[in-house]
């Protein structure tokens, strides 16, 4: 039923009580547990495991304050053992690995070095090796490699210095080498081992290049983000005075920016015509770590041009069909501009939300790293010939005298990976899951707190009879205090429901990743349907939560009652919701798109060196798309932060406007509180008291 007239209602209720107390207690317990998990992870974890190379004993190469401080490089006794496909699965070559100061720079076998250059050779042997021991004794105990090949460091690991002379693979300018066991082998035999070992490190090398690009361009990225912030603030200020004109400027500017993108893609597409290698298809090119390669292929620019053209057509068609409703949206935006003008502190509230979200993300990331590095070193039996103990866990301290060593004389006990058998390690995956779930819950809680705070502030503005005289002082801080004091449980309840749906979506994505190689089409279809359903459910819950928080901010009721009231209020006005509210959201999205487009285009011309004026100013980078992509994402987040205030203001005013229509009828006793602009659009009038 429509809400009845209440003469005592003057806006957000101040005399309210705590709501959803059980969920509040549950949330506090969960957060305390989250802190305990973090402390446990920090006490057990060791991030050095992902920073330093690890030798066969599980020691870190180059770690400060240890005997290996000056031995920063990892040396493989027999790099050809890395040619096994299992290397790509276990990330560990089945050969002894040790930390060294320098990589070997010459060809040498143990047999030759034993008599004339053993002191140099000992740099690549384990401790305790002397020339009093026989060569077979040294090799059987795996104390020294059988040979040394000229090597160069790559990602702090020693790899053979392979080259090519006349199309023939060489190592140290030689096409053959002595493997230390009396066999002369071709240099190409080293290729597979080097390829597999370097493939494991290639992704890390790309990350390092990206990190170097950030160190070279970080100040320009900050300048770009400041420009995005200034543009967002400028648009909001201009909308206050030129709301209608600014909306049309946004529409035209977005169409022009996308149109220029189509033109630029066409010019690049035409420019590459006839260029060697430009007609290669993306399928033939495959995945490349150097993404600039794709910009020299015509098909890349053709794909960009088609995507932008589709976006352009969709926007134009939407504007044609919704042209009459845009005027109503403009009226809402103008009123939102007036509300924000009286509640200016609301513009800076997204910074508070951003800081809280940054803390939540940082805590989750640090805890995840410490949890993933809190395992103990596990050693496995590795052998060259058949052995029944191969792959079993072993102890390197006493392996040389163990029964496994006696039964498999050519085997060794090498570091394999990090794991553990304790209770803590058994439940480590559960702690990681808890970390992810609490991350979603806390992040959604912070977002919900921002929505309820802004809703309470703007509702205070709408229900003020004489604006702005009746608007309370510091409405944002007053609303924040009410939200935390009375409705922490409600915020936790709404964010818990959303977090459960999001964690289910994460699990579905994980299952989808695992089933990619499966041939069961029914399972794939079912999984696709579930992903689609939960995506829709998440969108609906977000919409319902948002409006429920507005009702909680106004009336102070619990989550379920507020969600029910908001849902039925919107259903009673479903046409207005579909047209006015969503058209407004679309126009605000165009504003974000314009800011991102302007910053992105400027960043492209600056970092790519296409403009001669910037050639000497722009930094030299490995991938110029790194700062461009960072600026595009960052400017969108900044614009979203500012425009989210607008969106929340419009949603709150719209819900209050619907309540106003049901509560009041325009009579002297029950006048409408909506502004004149909205009353004119709806042909509503307030009757004046007749003169005596």
Report on this model:
With about 700 residues, the protein is mainly α. It is built from 20 helices and twelve strands. The chain has helices spanning about 20-45, 85-90, 110-115, 120, 135-140, 190-270, 280-285, 300-320, 325-340, 350-370, 405, 425, 430-460, 475-485, 490-515, 520-555, 560-570, 575-605, 625-665, 675-680; strands at about 75, 95-100, 110, 145-150, 150-155, 155-160, 160-165, 170, 175-180, 185, 375-380, 410-420. Strand 9 and strand 10 (about 185) form a beta hairpin. The protein is elongated. The protein starts with 20 loop residues before the first helix and ends in an 11-residue tail after the last helix.
Summarize the structure.
The protein has 692 residues and is mainly alpha-helical. The protein has 20 helices and twelve strands. A two-stranded antiparallel sheet has the order 1-2.
């Amino acid at each position: 039923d429509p809400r009845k007239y209440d003469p005592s209602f003057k806006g957000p209720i101040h005399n309210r009580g705590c709501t959803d107390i059980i969920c509040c207690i549950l949330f506090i317990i969960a957060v305390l547990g989250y802190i305990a998990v973090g402390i446990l992870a920090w006490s057990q974890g060791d991030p050095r495991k992902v920073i330093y190379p690890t030798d066969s004993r599980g020691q870190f190469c180059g770690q400060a304050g240890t005997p290996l401080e000056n031995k920063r490089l990892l040396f493989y006794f027999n790099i050809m053992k890395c040619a096994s496909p299992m290397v790509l699965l276990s990330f560990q070559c089945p050969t002894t690995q040790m930390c060294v100061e320098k990589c070997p720079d010459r060809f040498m076998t143990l047999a030759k070095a034993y008599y004339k250059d053993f002191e140099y050779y000992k740099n690549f042997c384990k401790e305790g090796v002397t020339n009093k021991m026989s060569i077979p004794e040294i090799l059987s105990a795996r104390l020294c490699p059988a040979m040394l090949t000229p090597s160069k460091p790559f990602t702090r690991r020693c790899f053979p210095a392979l080259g090519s002379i006349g199309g023939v693979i060489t190592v140290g300018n030689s096409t053959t080498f002595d493997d230390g066991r009396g066999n002369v082998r071709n240099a190409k035999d080293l290729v597979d081992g080097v390829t597999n070992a370097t493939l494991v490190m290639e992704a890390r090398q790309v990350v390092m290049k990206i990190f170097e690009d950030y160190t070279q361009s970080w100040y320009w990225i900050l300048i770009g983000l400041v420009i995005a912030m200034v543009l967002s603030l400028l648009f909001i200020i201009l909308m206050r005075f030129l709301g209608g004109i600014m909306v049309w400027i946004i529409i035209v500017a977005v169409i022009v920016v996308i149109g220029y993108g189509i033109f630029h893609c066409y010019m690049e597409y035409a420019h590459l015509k006839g260029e060697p290698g430009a007609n290669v298809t993306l399928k033939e090119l495959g995945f490349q770590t150097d993404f600039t390669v794709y910009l020299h292929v015509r098909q890349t620019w053709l794909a960009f041009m088609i995507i932008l053209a589709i976006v352009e057509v969709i926007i134009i068609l939407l504007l044609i069909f919704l042209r009459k409703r845009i005027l109503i949206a403009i009226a809402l935006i103008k009123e939102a501009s007036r509300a924000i003008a009286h509640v200016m502190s609301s513009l800076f509230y997204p910074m508070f939300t951003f800081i809280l979200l940054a803390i939540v993300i940082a805590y989750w990331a640090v805890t995840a790293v410490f949890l993933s590095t809190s395992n103990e070193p596990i050693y496995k039996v590795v052998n060259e010939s058949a052995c029944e103990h191969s792959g079993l866990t072993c102890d390197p301290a006493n392996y040389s005298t163990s029964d496994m060593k006696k039964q498999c004389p050519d085997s060794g006990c090498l570091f394999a990976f990090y794991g553990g058998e304790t209770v803590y390690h058994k439940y480590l995956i559960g702690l990681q899951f808890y970390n992810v779930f609490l991350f979603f819950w806390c992040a959604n809680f912070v977002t919900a707190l921002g929505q309820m705070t802004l809703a309470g502030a703007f509702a205070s503005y709408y229900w003020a009879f004489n604006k702005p005289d009746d608007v309370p002082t510091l409405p944002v801080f007053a609303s924040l205090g009410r939200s935390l004091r009375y409705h922490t449980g409600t915020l936790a309840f709404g964010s818990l429901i959303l977090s459960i749906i999001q964690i289910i979506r994460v699990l579905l994505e994980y299952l989808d990743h695992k089933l990619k190689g499966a041939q069961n089409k029914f399972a794939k279809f079912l999984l696709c349907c579930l992903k689609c359903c939960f995506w829709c459910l998440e969108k609906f819950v977000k919409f319902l939560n948002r409006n429920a928080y507005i009702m909680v901010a106004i009336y102070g009721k619990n989550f379920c009652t507020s969600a029910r009231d908001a849902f039925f209020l919107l259903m009673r006005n479903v046409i207005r919701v579909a047209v006015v509210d969503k058209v407004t959201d679309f126009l605000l999205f165009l504003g974000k798109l314009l800011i991102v487009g302007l910053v992105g285009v400027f960043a492209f011309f600056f970092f790519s060196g296409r403009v001669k004026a910037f050639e000497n100013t722009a930094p030299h980078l490995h991938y110029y798309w790194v700062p461009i992509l960072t600026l595009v994402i960052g400017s969108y987040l900044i614009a979203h932060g500012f425009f989210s205030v607008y969106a929340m203001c419009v949603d709150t005013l719209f819900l209050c406007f619907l309540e106003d229509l049901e509560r009041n009828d325009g009579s002297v006793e029950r006048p409408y509180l909506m502004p004149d602009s909205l009353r004119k659009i709806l042909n509503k009038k307030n009757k004046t008291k007749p003169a005596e």
